[in-house]
Amino acid sequence: MKQLVKSLLPDALVARLHNAARARSWKASGYAMPCPHHIKQATLLRNGLLRSTWVETGTYMGDTTALLA
Questions:
Q1: What's the confidence (pLDDT) of residue 1?
Q2: How far is CA 56 from CA 10, 49, 50, 64, in A?
Q3: How many CB atoms lie within 10 A of CB 48?
Q4: Taking 70 as the threshold, does the pLDDT of residue 63 lie above it?
Q5: What is the pTM of this model?
Q6: How do the domains of the chain map onto residue ranges?
Q7: Contact 66, 41 (CB under 8 A)
Q8: What is the spatial distance between Cα 68 and Cα 64, in angstroms, rounded to a whole number?
Q9: d(CA 1, CA 45)
Q10: What's the pLDDT tens digit per position in 12-62?
Q11: Which end of the chain, N or C, is more open, meaning fewer C-beta atoms within 10 Å of its C-beta?
């Protein structure tokens, strides 16, 4: 049933629902690290400085680097 509902919804809505569920779970854990990926990205974009130099260490797939590029 869950897969049927997911197949009927637009991908963007499914992603938003998934992110909201992860944020609720993170909040319920007392904001224990690590935070959900979408929250990390939003924080970097909100607090980043224009024309700044970023140094990322320990990147896995390069998602954050691509976001900041």
A1: 59
A2: 33, 15, 17, 8
A3: 11
A4: yes
A5: 0.67
A6: 2-68
A7: no
A8: 6
A9: 36
A10: 888 899 999 999 999 999 999 989 989 999 998 898 888 888 888 877 888
A11: N
- Dist. CA 32–CA 23, nearest whole Å: 11
What does each C-alpha distance from 22 to 25, 35, 59, 62, 65 come to in angstroms? 5, 9, 21, 21, 22
Separation of alpha carbons 39 and 45, rounded Å? 10
> Around Cβ 15, how many Cβ atoms within 10 Å?
12
The Cα 66–Cα 69 span in angstroms is 5
pLDDT per residue as tens digits for the range 4-14: 777 788 888 88
Is the Cα torsion angle 37, 19, 66, 42 positive or negative in sign? Answer: negative
Length of the chain as a residue count: 69
